[in-house]
Design brief:
255 residues; mainly beta; nine-stranded parallel sheet
Length: 255
Amino acid sequence: DGVNETDCVTGEYDQVQHVIIEGGTWDRNIIDQGTDTRAAAVIRINHGDDITIRNTTLLHASDHFMNLSGTNHVTIENMTFHDFVYSYLDKQYSKRGLNECVHTDSMQKVCEPSSYPQDNTVVQNMTVDGCTFLNVPCGVGSHSWTTDDQTIYRSNNITVKNCIFKNLAGRGVDAYSTDNFIVENCTAEDCASLVLARDATGEITGNTVNSTKVDTDHNVIGDEGSGISVLDCPEGVTVTNNQVFNAVKNGIWIR
């Protein structure tokens, strides 16, 4: 309480550097779905550079499992994220199916209202490799479409590969306003979709979508059900060598 922009003035990628988190089980212990009012991430690192997190299990969060907004040179390997708890947010924020386990927003008030300084620092040069996402709203990315000053601050060089997404209310990857993203060799089952690219550039290749679903209990945003969605991407997204089975809407939706 009482934290404001004067309490933390180190911005860009200079606040936290050269961090390795390896091993262990990190349990946020959100257990009461009806009355627990904590909206809590398990790990939060903002304004950071050279971050490695690997061989770790995160569970029982009621917000983003890891908030890594405004970071650079990030490696996330062989991690498991499972069992999101739809607590008091169930009828509010989390019901949109947008709580990414690995959250990659820019540092501005509309995206990160409780983190400082809000200097528009974006995420770039991040790799998520060999991770499993089970019973959660969304896997990796950012869903920001509105900005404080109507300027789009674009993430860059985000790679998600060799990952498994199973029973997600939302998408495996949210690639909003992201340049040079790659989603490669991933598998999705019982998810709203594998990936939604919007106002983005990049490549979606070699992935398998075994089934999609529409989860009206935990996702009410309305774009679920297609295996792969590429929307409003005038600069181009390449979609090659993917397989989509049992989609309740489009196999691949391009608009």
